[in-house]
Design a protein that fits this description.
Elements: H1 2-20, E1 78-83, E2 95-104, E3 110-113, H2 114-117, E4 121-124, H3 130-136, E5 144-149, E6 169-179
Antiparallel strand pairs: 1-5, 2-3, 2-4, 2-6, 5-6
């Protein structure tokens, strides 16, 4: 009797399993392997006039810099957010704490970097070249932005230290804080 009950139960189980399947039902996709690491953020493609960047541009714990530009440099200020911050936005009257690397559009050579000094720099936005101030305006704390500054918004035709006259400047800037 036990044997016939087991056989009957097995037949019912097979029938239930078979009834649940359907030849027209799509197969479930295989489960993705579990991962504890979040997907890596990727930097946006460079905007027109913005040179390619080195390293991992979305990693705000490391410096990134612009490579040499290609073609004619832009004649107007170009900005591109690489990482959009979530803090307050900078205004023209602010003094800001920034990490940055400045390079020449012509050859990608570094002319200044707060990263190489090991700490953020503090600037009143009304005390820097116009293109830097205009490029930071509206940027939110916690963000990274590329600024491509034409000569007329930078140092013009005059040289300034390692910056030759008539240079287009490229800054990769992290807005660390705003001082009130």
């Amino acid at each position: 009797m036990k044997r016939s009950l087991l056989t009957a139960a097995a037949v019912v189980a097979v029938a239930v399993v078979a009834a649940c399947g359907s030849p027209t039902a799509p197969a479930a996709p295989p489960a993705a392997p579990a991962s504890s690491a979040p997907p890596a953020a990727s930097a946006p493609a460079p905007a027109p006039g913005v040179p390619a960047l080195t390293g991992n541009p979305t990693d705000l714990t490391t410096a990134s810099q612009a490579q040499a530009g290609t073609g004619q440099p832009p004649s107007k200020l170009v900005t591109q957010n690489i990482v959009v911050g979530s803090g307050p936005a900078a205004t023209p009257a602010d003094t800001v704490d920034v990490q940055y690397t400045g390079t020449l559009y012509s050859d990608g050579s570094v002319f200044d970097s707060s990263w190489s000094r090991g700490e953020p720099a503090t600037f009143p936005l009304n005390g820097v070249v116009p293109g830097f101030a205009q490029g930071i305006e509206g940027m939110q704390v916690g963000g990274r932005r590329v600024l491509v500054i034409p000569p007329d918004l930078g140092y013009g035709n005059r040289s300034s230290g390692p910056i030759p006259g008539g240079s287009t400047l490229v800054f990769v800037v992290d807005l660390v804080g705003i001082n009130t």
